[in-house]
Design brief:
3-stranded antiparallel β-sheet, 5-stranded mixed β-sheet, alpha+beta, Cytochrome p450, 17 helices, globular
């Protein structure tokens, strides 16, 4: 723990100014509003009404997520997603989190993920063929949401798209929307004001649970395919306790990886294609690299992992539009951050969207420049300036999966189609569980 230097609160807006900021969030978006807050008040601020600290400086972020990590747990704000995620890796703490991280994490090592690339390639080609059937314009966000969900179902559950997966996705969307509604409420809404919504949520939860538990039972009885995450998790025995995962634990972890396995990757892909279409010089380099490296008839892992410039573009896209735009932590004991005393049990927000635009670490931070991620660059050498998947002991275990899936899908899609912006369209970035475009992403497509 650092020595406490001051009991004074960090600078920040007063309560009246907070109302103006909330209006700015509604009209201009969360990202621009907090960029202005950092410009006005500095690297650490305090938000009245919410009673939250927000830190932006990479060195302070490193202190919270790495140097003093034992003092920080997930913030209580994560409670709003527990209704449907349960006690999965994203929401649990303590002994349960350590055990599940140990067990589930094995399936997300690069060597394990490589086994699933044939499914990614197969489904990507299926969608590419569908788009080639006379389409001149598609909503990229909807199409990639469909594609990544199909991949997640096949890889995680061992099931192909159909009526069952459609019901699962519809239920998932309802539960996720309710979680976001709870998270955004300034004060908890009484149940009688949300009677219909709560009934809809309960029905969706029952549908989701019935489907997932039926899939688990099918695999326990020897049914279903063998090459998927669920089958592997059923076979694991914890190395310390000798226990297998219960059906409830399996359910919670599968729903948790489903969130990370399709929604976060999907949005990262959408923003990458948008940024390439907005930056023709970089787009030409990507297409030249793909034309040189990929064989249309025989796309394999070795080829896909030999695409350095495309990988840099994907990384740069996640700098400008990080999949997880906000992280939160809660300190167990008192601490000192940037010279300000932090009492125990405080909520600390970290905003990668803002930190990723720090001019001290990123020259011309608003520009799309994939060369920032060339091999000789050491972005996180003196602090944590780049954290699209979080950092430290709670770093998202799906990072390797997202990177491999992202490069695989981008390579196949961009090798087959050229994308152009629809004239006059401007995406509306929206902070939710992930960072998405609230008005979709319509784009013109042409066969290459």
């Amino acid at each position: 723990m650092q020595t406490q230097k001051s009991k004074a609160l960090p600078p920040g807006p007063n309560r009246l100014e907070m109302l103006k900021i909330l209006y700015q969030v509604k009209t201009s978006g969360t990202g621009p509003a907090f960029l202005k807050l950092r410009e006005d008040y500095g690297d650490i601020i305090f938000l009245p009404i919410f009673n939250r600290y927000v830190i932006f400086d990479p060195k302070d972020i490193k202190h919270v997520l790495k140097d003093n990590k034992k003092n920080y747990l997930k913030s209580n704000t994560i409670e709003f997603v527990k209704t449907f995620l349960g006690e999965g890796l994203a929401t649990s703490d303590g002994v349960l989190w350590k055990k599940q991280r140990r067990n589930v994490g094995k399936e997300f090592h690069r060597a394990s993920i490589k086994h699933y690339t044939p499914a990614m390639i197969k489904l990507a080609k299926k969608y590419v063929n569908k788009w080639g059937e006379g389409n001149s314009q598609i909503d990229v966000s909807q199409e990639l949401l469909d594609l990544t969900f199909d991949i997640a179902c096949e890889v995680f559950f061992g099931i192909e798209s159909g009526v069952q997966t459609e019901k699962l996705r519809d239920a998932f969307v309802i539960c996720a929307d309710m979680a976001v509604t709870r998270g955004r409420a300034l004060i908890p809404l009484p149940n009688f004001m949300m009677k219909n919504k709560l009934a809809e949520e309960q029905k969706a939860l029952e549908t989701m649970d019935n489907i997932v538990f039926d899939i688990i039972k099918l695999h326990e009885q020897g049914g279903g395919s063998d090459d998927n995450v669920l089958t592997k998790l059923l076979q694991y025995t914890d190395e310390e306790t000798g226990e297998k995962m219960s059906q409830k634990q399996l359910r919670d972890e599968l729903i948790t990886v489903l969130v990370g396995g399709f929604e976060t990757t999907c949005n990262a892909l959408i923003w990458t294609i948008y940024l390439l279409a907005s930056n023709p010089d970089s787009y030409k380099k990507v297409e030249a690299e793909l034309d040189k490296q990929l064989d249309d008839d025989n796309v394999g892992m070795d080829q896909l992992m030999g695409l350095p410039y495309l990988t840099q573009c994907f990384q740069e896209s996640m700098r400008l539009y990080p999949p997880f735009p906000v992280l939160s932590r809660r300190n167990l004991e008192s601490d000192s951050i940037a010279g300000y005393g932090i009492a125990p049990d405080q909520h600390i927000y970290i905003m990668p969207y803002v930190t990723h635009r720090d001019p001290e670490y990123f020259e011309n931070p608003g520009a799309f420049n994939p060369d920032r991620f060339s091999r000789d660059q050491k972005i996180n050498e003196s602090g944590i300036a780049y954290l699209p998947f979080g950092e430290g002991q709670r770093k998202c275990i799906g990072e390797n999966f997202a990177m491999i899936e992202g490069i695989t899908l981008l390579a196949i899609i961009l090798r087959n189609f050229h994308f152009e912006l629809v004239p006059g369209f401007e995406p509306e970035p929206k902070f939710s569980i992930t960072l998405y475009s609230a008005n979709g992403m319509p784009m013109k497509i042409s066969k290459r």
